[in-house]
Give the backbone structure.
Amino acid sequence: MQQSQSGGYPTGPDAPRPAGPPADQPNAAAPRDRTRQDAAANTAAAGRHPGTAAIPGYDGTTSPQPGAAQSERRVTRAGMIWAAVASALVVLVLLIVFILQNQELVQVKFFGLEGAVSLGVSLFIAAVGGGVLVAMAGAARIIQLRAAAHRRRVRAVRKR
């Protein structure tokens, strides 16, 4: 039977583990008792202030554990997509309100074309045109960077 470095528990894959703490560690059961005490305090706090039992330190009966690790939040693709869609919906609602509040007709001239369009729609078209120009400049830069990276990879393969 193999022995571990601390505690005297066997470390083999098939070795059974004892249910209680080892005899040389008398305070090993303290965290379990503290959890029971915290639960009792939370129950008492819930009786005084409904809905606040889960807030450590709200009424002074419990306090957050020093050194207790905070749950790590992970950024996922689904979360990023949800945030992007929610942001886009807010922007679209604001654009609709803007267009509806600016219904006055204005005279628009563009390369010899002339017409009357509502102010909100004409400004929206101008904003979309600006966005298209920015997207084209960004696409050109991305293509340029990818071509440079491809040339570097080809040179690296040829040097081998």
